[in-house]
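Researcher: I'd like a structural prediction for the single chain below. Treat it as a standalone chain; there are no partners to consider.
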Amino acid sequence: MKFYDLLQLSTKDLKTRIKDASCSDKKRYWKALIIKDVLCVFFAIFFIVFFNKIFGEKNSSVAVVIFCVLLGIRFVDFDYKLSTSIVNLLITFLIIILGPYLNSILNPELAFFINFFFLMTILIMTCEQPMYGNSSLYVFGYILLFSSPVYGFDMFLRVLEMLVGFIVCALVLYKKHRHKEYRKSFKDILRAFSIGDDKCKWQIKLALGISLGILIGSLLKLERIMWVAIAIMSVLTPYYDTPHSRIKDRVLGVVVGSIAFLVIYNIVPNSYISLMGPLSGLVLGFCASYRWSSIFNCFGALLVASSVYGASQATFLRIFNNLFGCLFALVFYFIFNKFYEKISNYFVC
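Model: Treating it as a single chain, here is the predicted structure.
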């Protein structure tokens, strides 16, 4: 395999190769992993800074969403006709900015129905093959923008930024997947949608779980509600899996990562604190397990939140919101499965 091809592999794949390889090959795989990690972090910094210069710091979260989608769409398409996929990608991008905006101006009860409808739309359009995991990128983007609502001219810039991001991602989608022969159209996807189908059940579970979590968090007036929603998403996202191990890894990762951040934040001189983001990103690139990823994801998230709430309050909020989100997801998982089976049997019969 060419060295360039090694750079295209995931961290998990490279670490598996390192584990099974001979001594000489190990060095080659480690070299690929390190270079891939460094290039990805530096490209992320350049990409986000460049977009922030044009569209403003208030829309930095949009640049993060576009960057994440850009990385994923190189390898995973929507698995149906390419022309329709590009149209649906545009619709998905518009939903990602419209949903959080409507949540910021409407009451929580009405916003619940909007969130459920939008999330179901995203999942149906982007998730023909749940095992690919690409739909979580778009759901994550939808949730992430809850942390930074904007209005007026900043909202105009946000829409413009998303349109630019769509053009970039659409070009990559076309370039990388134009030679693929598609057996399905989006109409086939819609025709196959059935309440008795396992994929449909999972899509409804994820959309309803996140929407309910946001509703309850809004009614309780929780700060940084996106952390609750992301915790729910991460627990319910795995397809054909129970949430137990996922909850255990996330809770452990968030608690350890948040406390580690607070300790380091109070030790490191103020002039070096900003380096915690890029450094944690570099370390994150070596993480192949969900538990370790959960630990180092805390650093970037808390670095941003600490500028608003202070380090101590941000740490408390991250731990509390994630515990709340995981507990809610666990309870919802069992209640949903119990009632969905009865409802689906009724409709199928």
